[in-house]
Amino acid sequence: MQWMTAGAGVVHSEIPEAEFTRTGGRLHGIQLWVNLPQRDKMIAPRYQEIPSAQIPVAQTKDGSVTVRVIAGEALGAKAVIETRTPIIYLHFTLQPGASLVQPVPKEYNAFAYVLDGSGLFGTEQERGEDGQMVLFAPDGEEVAIANPADATQPLDLLLIAGVPLNEPVVRYGPFVMNTEAEILQAIDDYRNGRMGQIHV
Fold this sequence. Notes:
Blueprint: E1 2-5, H1 18-23, E2 46-49, E3 57-59, E4 65-71, E5 73-74, E6 77-78, E7 87-94, E8 99-103, E9 109-116, E10 118-121, E11 126-129, E12 133-136, E13 142-146, E14 155-162, E15 170-172, E16 175-177, H2 180-191
Antiparallel strand pairs: 1-2, 3-4, 4-7, 5-6, 7-14, 8-13, 9-12, 9-14, 10-11, 10-13, 15-16
């Protein structure tokens, strides 16, 4: 897993491994952008690479729910990644008939993205399916997720949550700032090599 804090700017390239490029196959990747608060927009860039084997994994006692803890905490496991802002980023797998209740601070906004399968979300048990995003109402301190007992496959999903910044957002291409003037400065910094370069 790669966790990049762009801050004042970083140039990067995402290329599959040589073996995958040569042999092909199915590649499943998720890229999540977490906006920094205005006060942190120009901090020094930072890159963290966490090998898959080092991402904390936890299970319920009966093994019906497994979680990979990318950011935050779940089922007694805590993430090893350091985030600039407090967020929850959890990869859950629920076997048929399994359910979970995950604590989420009431000031957070939360959503789930269904990677595979179909499940029931929230107290209203709204259905969410493969490729859909489910928004949770900000009306409690936990979210409920279930994979129905009659499901024919596991439910695989990401649960993401964080504190809303309540700041203006201006974006252009890969740049996310708070004002148009800041966007123009970011473009100028990029064009003039102040964000680094990719060496091939």
